[in-house]
Amino acid sequence: MSWTRRALLLVTGGAVGAWGAGRWGPQNPSLDGTTSIAPTGGADTLNDASGLSETPIHRRVILTDDPGEALAAKLRAEMANAVGEGRPVAVSAARHSMGGQAIPRDGHAITCDNGWIEPDTENGVYRVHAGARWSQVIAALDPLGFSPKVMQSNNDFGVGATFCVNAHGWPVPHGPMGATVRSFRMVNAQGEWITCSREENADLFRMSMGGYGLAGLLTDLTVEMVPNRRLVPSYEEMPGREVGRALAEAVADPDVDMAYGRVNVDRARLFEDGLLITYRPDADQSDLPPAAGSGWVSKASRHIYRAQLGNETVKRARWWTETDLGPLVGGGSVTRNSLINEPVVTLDDRDPARTDILHEYFVAPERFADFVAACQEVIPASYQEFLNVTLRYVAADPDSWLAYAPVPRIAAVMSFSQEMTARAEADMARMTQDLIERVIDIGGTYYLPYRPHATRGQFQRAYPRAREFVAEKRRIDPDLIFRNALWDRYLEAL
User: Fold this and answer.
1) Which residues contact 456 (CB under 8 A, 6 or more apart)?
2) 447 is in which domain, residue-wise?
3) Which of 87, 144, 270, 341 reaches 20 to 30 Å from 238, CA-CA?
4) Which stretches does DSSP call E strand in 189-327?
5) Is residue 494 part of a domain?
6) For the chain, what is the domain count?
7) Does the residue 484 lie in any domain?
């Protein structure tokens, strides 16, 4: 990727959702509107990307073993120790969730950190450690001329975690990353190391896809890959309310390999202006360059992205950069792997007084205009700083029990910058609940890895199979070994 193209992708937010950096320490639950809730640190606590999920834990363990009996034995040992004391267990990688979904309260927090990858070019798959990061997958596949078929939008998330939160990407016309998983191995609540696929232990497969680790502890996965290709972008401006429909139509073109949409976020023209970006194969597929990584341009781009904070003029300038300047200077070819090889830390806020909070909503393409109207009514009533929204297409997911796309959906990934105060947290909760209510009313859903601001009633309406999931969870894990904040907040009472 040329430096110009990479700069434009980062400055405009392209396919990137900006996560806040993980923070440590306790939050202050005071209701004083100006009281800071910034963390202060603690060896016996864990936090996540929000910086607002400080949770006491009993023990933290980092496992680096390759997939095999040694790793399974260590997982069994942690489980046995936890069960004896009535404590929960949860496994994670980067812990980029925003509401404690990867943290077991007063329990055993296991972090898998291993980049083991075994490509099988003959069968178009690769076996990968659940704790491997997408950057390691790209590094292993790129020299062989291959690319992940679907991965999360940035490269520093864990592969197993992507499957467990049912994350999607922006390659099209695919569903969530789990749609590309052939099988995985996991240690279940009985300590058995078993294989799960759509044919073998099929219910466990479907519960684990988007099950947030509540069905068992993954050790490794077999995942589909595709050839890496050189791609060329095209740009189309349109009214914001039309981007959802246009994106759905674009991905029906078999020549479109990747696609995303954008809408304007400055308050004066909130969601009024839209842009559709599609990538098709270049005629020249010879001598593909190695996947590019972050460089000085990525770091410089962060400052422009952050300059939007409290500055509507910069937001308008950023929109001009993407719609007018981008097609002129950033329209050259780029490899598929280079497009997806970017870490979230590039856009980290690095401000202890603020945190980046993501929202994500899924609506049918034909209801996207209704979604735009809802955002235009709800978001301006909040004082949160709205920095970015990226639109992606997600094909129907027939597998996951907690599916957010039972039919094809447009995903709207929103990034807000929030003060680390109780007042701002209350305002964010109010806005989130209002948006969720409007989205449910038009037949849509919201994503579960973010702040747990939805009411329990909203959760049950958005995820109607939740009771069935809980009943099966209690059957296969009667001691409730695998628990996290998602279980505690929404599922335990069902």
Assistant:
1) 489, 490, 493
2) 3-19+229-451
3) 341
4) 193-197, 217-227, 230-239, 258-263, 273-281
5) no
6) 1
7) no
